[in-house]
Amino acid sequence: MKTRTTRTTKRTPDPFRPDSHGTNSRNRVAKDDVLAVIVDVDNGHEYYMAFIDSFTMNGHDYVAMYNYEPDDGNHREPEIVIMRAERNVAGEQYFKSIKNKTELADAFDFFYRRFEEAGG
Fold it and tell me: Is the pLDDT of residue 86 over 60?
């Protein structure tokens, strides 16, 4: 899937950032998250995503995010998605699904190590 960003930024709780007591996602902390509506360029479907992290690995840029849903207490914990981030010649941001299983596993491992080092 190839997507592009259409909107960003909103204040929302971050379910992955530990609070001052070092607890996990069950005790959410409000901070400025970057929210985006990304659009599948093939079918026009919109996805509301909250960005967690971005990083460079092996010369490629990646972004970790999760499906954003307002916290109404009725939805399950979000699933983390990692996509390759690229810009086209006009400078528009695109995100591509990672189809190579080895690349995807390496990206998740890299993200998880960063998460643990940050105290997650």
Answer: yes
Place of tokens 């998740």: 108
Q: How many independent structural domains does the chain possess?
A: 1
Average pLDDT over residues 85-100: 91
Q: Say whether pTM exceeds 0.85.
A: no
- The amino acid sitting at 90 is A
Q: Please say if the pLDDT value at position 117 is more than 60.
A: yes
Q: Can you tell me the distance from the alpha carbon of 114 to that of 109, in angstroms, rounded to the nearest whole number? A: 9
Could you tell me the residue range of the domain that residue 77 belongs to?
2-117
| Per-residue b or e along 67-105, where b marks 16 or more CB atoms closer than 10 Å to that residue's CB | ebeeeeeeeeebebbbbbbeeeeeeebbbeebeeeebbe
Residue 59 CA to residue 67 CA, distance in Å, equals 26
CB 82 within 8 A of CB 63: yes
